[in-house]
Design a protein that fits this description.
This protein folds into three domains: 2-73; 78-125; 130-200, Head domain of nucleotide exchange factor GrpE (Nucleotide Exchange Factor Grpe, Chain A, domain 2). It is 56% helix and 16% strand. The strands form two sheets. A three-stranded antiparallel β-sheet has the order 1-4-5. It has helices spanning 2-31, 34-76, 79-97, 105-124, and strands at residues 127-130, 142-149, 158-163, 165-168, 171-174, 176-182. The protein is an alpha+beta fold.
Length: 200
């Protein structure tokens, strides 16, 4: 009986083991099929490629932004200094215009040479003068100081430059102060594309 009782559990265990192992072995075989492995590897490869491309794009954008910031810093580092020099240049020009008639020629010639040298220095550093006489008013570069009727001139056309403006590279350093023609019955019709609301 001991033998019978001892054999019975063994038979039951033998019967149970295949039932428990069959689904597991089926799952393992299903997971390890070459098709499934290839599909999983392809998905993983695509995801890794996408992450790599995004990282490279971010790195390139960061590099370009750093280069632009560096270039802008180099271009516009002297902007504040140049703006201060503009005031000096304006006062210097006023002084030249107010020289008395009996000023010795050598003195006036020397002062005029200094004025030209100042403009030359500006030019070397990318600072360009805006002298928009007879141009149409552009709020991006001009500041209106007055309006006056001017027969034969289009409304908004610049009739006087009170103070020239300046740009450094492609950025406005100081707007030109101007007077513009006011619309009258005798005004030349202006280009509709060039009309600007100067009251706003």
């Amino acid at each position: 009986m001991t033998d019978n009782h001892g054999q019975a559990p063994n038979e039951n265990e033998e019967n149970k083991e295949p039932e428990a192992q069959t689904p597991e072995s089926d799952n393992v075989e299903e997971l390890l099929t070459p098709e499934k492995q290839i599909e999983a590897l392809q998905t993983e490869l695509l995801q890794a490629k996408d992450r790599t491309m995004r990282a490279l794009a971010d790195a390139e954008n960061t590099r370009k932004r750093a280069i632009k910031d560096r270039d802008d810093a180099g271009k516009f580092a002297i902007a504040n200094f140049a703006r201060d020099l503009l005031d000096f240049g304006d006062n210097f020009k006023r002084a030249l215009k107010s020289l008395p008639e009996d000023t010795p020629p050598a003195v006036s010639e020397g002062l005029n040479a200094m004025d030209k040298e100042l403009l030359s220095v500006f030019d070397r550093h990318g600072i360009t003068q805006i002298d928009p006489m007879d141009e149409m008013f552009d709020p991006n570069f001009h500041e209106v100081m007055f309006e006056a009727p001017m027969p034969g001139k289009a409304a908004g056309q610049i009739i006087q430059v009170i103070e020239p403006g300046y740009v450094i590279k492609d950025r406005l350093l100081r707007a030109a102060k101007v007077g513009i023609a006011q619309a009258t019955d005798d005004s030349t019709p202006s280009d509709p594309g060039a009309q600007v609301d100067i009251q706003g």
